[in-house]
Amino acid sequence: MSTSSDDTILLGAVAYDPRVVTIWEGIRDHFQQEGASMDFILFSNYERQVDALMRGHIDIAWNTPLAHVRVQRRTEGRSRSLGMRDSDRDFRARVVVRRDAGISTLTDLHGRTLAVGSRDSTQARILPLYFLEQAGVDLARVKLLPFDTDVGRHGDTGTSELAVLQALREGVADAGTVGDLVWVTEQAAGRIDTALIDTLWATPPFDHCMFDALPTIDEGKVARFQKALFAMNWENPAHRRLLELEGLKQWMPPREAGYASLRAALDRQGLW
Question: What mean pLDDT comes out for the span 44-50?
Fold first, then answer.
């Protein structure tokens, strides 16, 4: 059980970017206004955060999909899923290619160089490779060019995906795997030349981050947490600023169906 000696909800999050402090300080203030005492602890990586949750040092962890399914596995499926972003639902990854590489089908990747993100990035490596295999690509015939940056942060920083795009721009790779969010963001910022690089294929949808708790969490804390979380409203300017920073418009109830492919991928790749 949590070591908290009062009614304060102690939440863990990973400090993958300086704005994380701003986000959680703002959310903490919102929770106070909703009558829910909350504080947060920042971790440098998800492995440390998951260990803290399992030891009861925090009540709730804001987890990546990889951390989420690992918590479920360590609790034999008894952990509590408390909420997610609307943007966490039906997330996709992309296989992007150089237009001059002559790649028009997935099997054209055979014999080519495919840049991939960090080994613990769900959207830039684990699931794209799994879905490519499911679609008939023989990965033994593809030369993988991995970019293992910020390992432990599960692809949150996006640095490995930016390295993938840079490899394509420089012609070091013929194709690459990136999450839809990075692709759309970089394109909107004018940093992708679509005359040079284009999308070949998008993966089936999968779900992303989740708030996790142990099955022993106090039910009062669950009720207060969810009430305050779901009270955040896009139409409220103060809330909107925080929601925009965290990349969502609405907090949603949890759902589990969108993690089945990740569990299958971890089984296949031996990454549990």
Answer: 98
Assigned token pair, 83: 């909420």
Euclidean distance between CA atoms 271 and 169, whole angstroms: 30
Burial (CB count within 10 angstroms: exposed 0-12, middle 13-18, buried 19+), residue 212: buried
Q: How many CB atoms lie within 10 A of CB 75?
A: 17
**CA atoms of 30 and 55, how far apart (whole Å):** 27
Where do the domains of the chain lie?
9-88+208-269, 93-202
Please state whether the predicted TM-score (pTM) of the whole model is above 0.70. yes
CATH number, domain 9-88+208-269, options 1.10.760.10, 3.30.460.80, 3.60.150.10, 3.40.190.10 = 3.40.190.10
Report which residue type is found at 119.
R
The burial class, CB within 10 Å (0-12 / 13-18 / 19+), for 166 is middle
Positive or negative: CA dihedral 257, 69, 165, 100? negative
DSSP E strand stretches across the chain: 9-14, 38-43, 60-63, 80-85, 93-98, 113-116, 143-146, 175-179, 197-202, 210-213, 251-252
CATH of domain 93-202: 3.40.190.10
Compute the residue count for the chain.
272
Nearest to 125 by CA among 114, 135, 110: 114
> Tell me: the pLDDT tens digits for 83-131?
999 999 999 999 999 999 999 999 999 999 999 999 999 999 999 999 9
Using CA atoms, how far apart are residues 246 and 212, in angstroms rounded to an integer? Answer: 17
- Residue 66's CB is within 10 A of a number of other CB atoms, namely 26
Q: Which residues of 177-206 are buried (b: 16+ CB within 10 A; e: fewer)?
A: bbbbbbbeebeeeeebeeeebeebbebeeb
